User: Fold these one by one.
Assistant:
Number 1:
Amino acid sequence: MVKAILDMIPELPYFRELLIAFFTGAAETWARFISEFAPGGLIDEATIEEKDLAWMPATNDVNEGALGQFRVMIHRQPQLTLLGHNAIAMYFCNDTEAFMKERFTEKEDHQFLHKLARESTGEEKKRKKEIVDF
């Protein structure tokens, strides 16, 4: 790609000015980004626990978004169904744990939920078989 651009430079009369403008603007932005790493900056002063809490992937990789999350989950748990994946995603997205701690106070609540889960798993297995048999 670099060679192709270098070959095209004679046909791009404002290439040099454009490149200088790009790097000038980038230098201003880079100064803002790296200030967090300077001695006494936010990252420099953060504890190990704070750094662990703030961790995130360094790049926008193929595992971003709902489809990427599904791909990673299926790779880790090949037996997982789409229904199961969606239930797990909704559990974490909707803060279901807090809701359950507040509302699921009786043993019967949990038993009912387990019954629904077993039934839905059975229905999904039937659907998978119908698709395979098709």
Number 2:
Amino acid sequence: MRRGGLARALARAGHFVTAIDPRAPEGPIFRRVRLEELSEAGPFDYVVASLSLHHIEDLGRALDKVANLLQAGGALVVVEFAWDRFEEAATAWVLEHLPAVASPSEGPSWLQRCCRGWARGSRGARVPAEAYFSGWACD
């Protein structure tokens, strides 16, 4: 999906969406702010953190904010990666079961594009999953 693809898909499915990212695309559902700067009052049914929490300096403070934004019974959905815990056989299985493209109109997803290098390997030789995925980690 393109940047903001998950938020757009949720909005198209009829959900009320507020998507935040300092580099968010233009559009009525997007706010160009960091979580720490968000002034939306909530409450929200769900908060989705997709490959974003590793960018936050004060994670405890940010999660306190999320807890305050959630309505009673709401849920936090976290999608992150722990490259140092990738297990070779499980990773290979997941990659083999990814569809060729996310959708015909949007082409391969971010994960599919990133994983192609590992699935093919350099010059045909597959590198260990831990070595390949460690390059995704942000400093």
Number 3:
Amino acid sequence: MIDLHSHSLYSDGELLPSEALRRVTVLGYRYLGITDHVDASNFDLVLERLRRAATELNKVSPTKLIPGVEFTHVPPSQLGPLVTQARALGAVLVVVHGETLAEPVAPGTNRAALEADIDILAHPGLITREEVELAAQRGIMLEISARHGHSLANGHVAALAREVGAGLILNTDAHGPGNYITRARAIQIAQGAGLSPRDCDQMLANAEALAQRALARLGLAPL
């Protein structure tokens, strides 16, 4: 299992990075991305803490921790500059909290995120065809979410992505130990969104490629 969108107590998660990593190791995860919620006020602090955790834990853990950030409820006009600053500080995985159906994210967030240097647009809700086309052009992954509420539009996202040829990735958006899932459960969720077994294989390959790219940015060899 590869999960590139989760949270620790550095934002609104329940666990330290070390405990989160241990819990998913027991479940057979290969990579865990911890991408805590950030905005202009804290992205530098959170990124520094998670990079420090990854440096130490990856020396001994069979599951590799990929440190990242999830820009959340950031005004659309600020997304591009903040993502650029985060990259300059060494962010190897950048997620943006998309226009989910579960929260009042500002209109225009999906578009602004897709115009920035990000890796994943999380739970993008009622994303438009034009925006999905932009994601495909820019190689940005659109998320199929395992999280309640955020998963409401999985079918819509999956259908447009298949039609346009945009990349999909499935993440848990885990905030606590009860949110982590197995690979088998991830495939069930993807199939519930209308994806075929072949689509699921491609989705898993997308996660592998993105994880390896992030590891390369950290100077680590892939598992």
Number 4:
Amino acid sequence: MSGIVLSASVRQNLLSLQSTAALLATTQNDLSTGKKVNTALDNPTNFFTAQGLDNRASDIGNLLDSIGNGVQVLQAANTGLTSLQQLVNTAKSIANQVFQVPPGYTTKSTTTSTALPAGSTSTNLVDGAAIKSGETLTIPATNAAAGDVATSFTFGATTSLAQLNTALAANQLTASLDSSNDLVITTTNDAASSTVGTVTLGAAGTATFAAPTAPVPDPVSQSTRASLVNQYNNIVTQITTTAQDSSFNGINLLNGDNLKLIFDETGKSTLNITGGTFNATGLGISSLTVGTGFLDNNSANAALATLNTASTTLRTEASALGSNLSIVQIRQDFSKNLINVLQTGSSNLTLADPNEEAANSQALSTRQSIAVSALALANQSQQSVLQLLR
């Protein structure tokens, strides 16, 4: 082959044909792969830049799975909070029913004064010498746990029954005169299960008070109230189990777990969500005991106060949870959009334009045909010389 000598025209046409064939092969490869930069040899800068963009898009895409799980954890907790709020509202409804049933006692606790003068009236309790003006009536708190302040009432020259009742109201007591004009102090319906404390006078007088009588339960009413206690306790149990069941993939923000989400490939952009304990104990809700729970309005009011506090706690947590869920969903959408931006940038650096490559392929095919024809013509000139030699 080393001894073969090609003419300048043949060699030139052959080189042109080889160059066109190489370009045509490259164009056809671009069309088949869809890329104009397939290796670092094609364009080192674009190749490695695109690779970096694709790697980052892939890393963020991997984080999307954990972000998606985080969204589900938050939604599970939010579903649990909604159910817990409904259960608390149901418990409130049960407690409110206590006010609708008859008092739990046929007779409430009373204490009665003795030696009041005949003719005393409800408009002048100190008419006469039975209770002297300036004497102080003292009664211990009916229910110290509920915040009653003990009664201390000083009689004036013309103390009325209305004035005395105003003073007794804060202690959940009421005063009246019986048929003998004796002063009777009785618990209100709110404190129907309580016994009136021992009544004393602060100075020597002719009036004394008998030992307080205990309230007499009403079996029918107490049976109804016992049923309400059982219903209430069932709700309390459901509050605990609902909080325990509000988990996703082993994470329960309503049962003391925490959630950490990572939003970027460097691990520097994170969100830490602290959970809490929202079972009955965590909400401060306790089961009631038949025979002591819902005996009177006071016990119902105490339960309602606890439930209102629990409701406020749940609403506060729901607000915080909703805010965190919004943040996570925004970051989830941001990550999806960012992946699209990165992949689009990578594509702009490496992908081929099908229209342009198709046009190039057609042009190169035409050039190749021309080069083949030119090479044939060059060969023909050499054939003519050969003919002369013959």
